[in-house]
Each structure stands twice: as C-alpha cells, then as structure tokens.
C-alpha cells in the first residue's frame, strides 16, 4: 500500500518524488515488475507531470525502472549481476575510506558512530526495519564524513539502489539486523583502535555478506529477479 507523503517547498519537487518512489521500490512496497504511471503518480502527489517525468529519469539512471516504448515505465526486476557489480564498486570505495578513517577519525567522529550503533540496536529491538536501514546507511556515511569525504558516500549511494532491494529482503530472512550490528561494531572497534588492516578486513567481511545472501533470496522471490 502506498504511503502518504507531503511535498514541501524545501527542495525541488522532482527530488522529493524521486526519493519517495525510490524508498517504496527499495522496500518492495512497489514490487519489481510493477507499472508506474506518470498520470497516477502526478495525481498522488498533486503535482504536474513534469517533475514526475524527471523523477522517473533519475530512477532509470539508478537502475530501478526501465522505460519500454509504447508500453510504459516499469520497476526493474532485480539483477543479480547488477547487485554483484555494485557491491564490487562499493567495496573498493568503502575499504579505502575505512582505512583512512582508522588513521584520521576524531573522538567526535567516533562518538557519532557509537551513538549510531546504539540507535541501530534500539531499532532492531523495535523491529523497525526501515529505521534500521536508514541508520545502517548513516553509519557508512558517518565513516566517510569522518575523513571529510562526503563525496565517497554520495558515490556509493548512487550505485547501491539495486543492492538496497536485496538488503531489505535479507533483513527478515537471511541477515537479521543483530548480525549486521555485530559486523558494524567490529568495524567501529577497528577504527577506534586505529588498526587500518583490521578495519579493512571487517568492512570487507561486512560487504561480502550480500554474496552469500543473494542466492537464497532470489530462490525465495524468483518472480522478482531477472532470469538468465
């Protein structure tokens, strides 16, 4: 079921619609294979079709939708190859980031990471999956910000949309939040200890979780995955 959102004047309308639709696609509220109608989306948000069209373009660039001439815009099915490629690129970026963080992170940055971990544990206790996902992202973003390199996280965020759908599906069935929090704590401990090698190893193990989770998830939700 669609969630009611409010369009505000604080940022461009197309960006707000993109963010809202991205969230619903990632969490499978809008399932893979669904048809997206410009007319219906514009009516839903009470806006003209132009910002909706622009949001669709951004979703296509993120690999979440595809436009089929004479047929319409459809939510892409999940591509295991695209997930693997995204994970490979993300791992390369985040390992470089976490090694620097182990050498440069300040006490203030470490405190922010610790507070984030506490909030992750609270979200897990409340079974707040979407809240946990947001805190998971924030944890990785805080590591990038600890070395004053927000662009590194922006780069990761732009390539991980397809990964996020698999990540959402795994939380309840393959990789529960508690195990991911423990992995995050290992990353934090290595950064706090200024051990770059341990930080790299912990981050690599964490990001490789998806390699092992995608097969059972694709078998459980075969209709949502591209078949090759």
UniProtKB/TrEMBL annotation:
It comes from the Bacteria. CDD domains: WHTH_GntR (cd07377). Residues 11-78 form the HTH gntR-type domain. GO terms for molecular function: DNA binding; DNA-binding transcription factor activity. InterPro entries: GntR_C (IPR011711), TF_FadR/GntR_C (IPR008920), Tscrpt_reg_HTH_GntR (IPR000524), WH-like_DNA-bd_sf (IPR036388), WH_DNA-bd_sf (IPR036390). Keywords: DNA-binding, Transcription, Transcription regulation. PANTHER family: HTH-TYPE TRANSCRIPTIONAL REPRESSOR RSPR, TRANSCRIPTIONAL REGULATOR, GNTR FAMILY. This is Putative HTH-type transcriptional regulator YdfH.
